[in-house]
Amino acid sequence: MSDVVLSLQKLHKRFGALQATNDVSLDLQQGEIHALIGPNGAGKSTLIGQIAGNIRPDEGRVYLADTEITGMNIAQRARLGLGRSFQVSSLAEPLSVMRNVMMGVQALQSHSFRFWKPVARDQQLLEPAYEALERMQLSHRAWTPVSELSHGERRQVEVACALALKPRALLLDEPMAGLGPEGSAKLTELLEALKLEVPILLIEHDMEAVFRLADRISVLVSGSVIAHGDSQAIRQDPRVREAYLGDSDA
Amino acid sequence: MTNNTSSGTTAIALAPKADRHFDRKGLVQMALLGLLLLVPIAAYFMGHIYYVNLASRMTIIAMAAVGLNLAIGYGGMVSFGHAAYFGLGGYVAGISAYHAFDYSLFMSWPISVPGSDSLLVVWLVAALLCALLALAIGAISLRTTGVYFIMITLAFAQMIYYFANSWPTYGGEDGLPIYIRNTLPLVDSSNSLTYFLICFTGLVLAMAITSRLMKSRFGAALTMARLNDVRLATAGISPYPIRLVAFVISAAITGLAGALYADLNGFVSPTSLSWHFSGELMVIVILGGVGRLYGPLAGAVLFVMMETLLGGITQYWQLFLGLVLLGVVLFAKHGVMGWLAGREHNE
User: Fold this and answer.
1) Using a CB-CB distance cutoff of 8 angstroms, which residues of chain A are in contact with residue B245?
2) β-strands A33-37, A216-221 pairing
3) Where are the bilayer-spanning segments (chain B) (predicted)?
4) A positions 112-171 inside 8 Å of B (CB)
5) A100 in contact with chain B, both atoms CB, cutoff 8 A
6) Does the beta carbon of A72 lie under 8 angstroms from any beta carbon of chain B?
7) pLDDT confidence of A1, banded at 50, 70, 90?
């Protein structure tokens, strides 16, 4: 059990008559990429919300390593080592890449009620942030405002921001969304290298990337996990083909 | 320079730094501050006390706006109730002087609190009380955002306004006179130039503190809370306490300005607590340039000058203020400072 970094246990979430999450249990283990796929409206966003902390489940628990985080807010979960990226890039655009990435480093080192020392030359902040950027091959853009970056670079900054937290688990919400084939291939490569250090729960539409990257895949349909297994098993699962990959290719 | 980073790491390229001393922005800022300092000194020695007091008024209003700018400009918290702190600061000065004047007690139970005619005591109490009030108001108001935040801060300020209006001990709606200006050790605070210099020091300190604060870790977090609070939370920092502390510091600065203002005029009344004044402070911040260090100063100078010059010609001078504000909002998005000194970058 010590290999389990993130685990969801019997999560339920209902919005009025809609059962958005129905008895979902899954886990993320050291060294793997676990992909979560599902058609639109399957409840992926609701599930991510419950992991990240912006949605409270009605029932069930969420654990990060051995700590229960079900009742914690977004910031507390982040400090415990849950890094995430968003489906639509969520960065402070007028600020430089560095200033975005530095926030995570700052959160880890101490509380932010430090009023005097300037951050612009604070090596304690700059170095770890720079390292996170290097991991995403973006250090040459450190002082460029986010607003001047390409879409693909922004996706990399998002991951770098998460890495700055020295996370125990990464939650990546459609990191390939909107990337061209080239950008997608580059990010796939970066994530593949990353998973050895930080396990990744990957929510992704790009099936090519999912089948290439994922060690395990869970398929979410109408709030429930209907299938679970490696890419080979998922490709052949008839329920998945029906619900998600489309019956027409069968 | 000593640093405790591990050896062998390559030095990281720092943010490119502009030459700050001789660029346009630096010149405009120095000219503004220099004129504000030198004109009253010259006026004093030419015997025009009126202009010295006018400059004190500009300086104090600017300081109050520096406080509000920390909330609105740097923190993204559009407070429509900063008159509450300005007025409370003023009433601290007034009430303290009132009790010091007739040797009575502000309260006798459970502890006895006398008045004081010392400016240092007045400032300390004003800043502390305003911080406490802002802590209470902010703790509730910051649970809302947008229009609701504007309205709830206004509502709290109005409560305090009506409270002061209906408290006869301290003059009620007639206000409270301060017969003798509160004093400082060593210097004569009743001298108009001395008092101007005290106010000027207050303004410069408030601006220096704001500047330093915004460059610190706290400032980095506050900036992120304004630009993208989801990003801040995702990075592991809860936005709420950061905002609340900024709101409290902002109120304390505005409250100090209020205390200075009451002692300048020798009078404090509920007018200083009214929503009109909250609105004027907002107008000043917007005129000068939201979120710019020298914006409140430029805004206050412009505002008080228009009030004095145009107000002398017509009592409808605010019509012209409205036109200027319209012009600034439409054509100079970054305020007068943005127009004079160019755009400011966030680094």
Assistant:
1) 113
2) parallel
3) 30-52, 58-76, 83-101, 121-140, 147-164, 193-214, 240-261, 281-304, 316-341
4) 112-127, 130, 142-143, 145, 161-162, 164-165
5) yes
6) no
7) very low
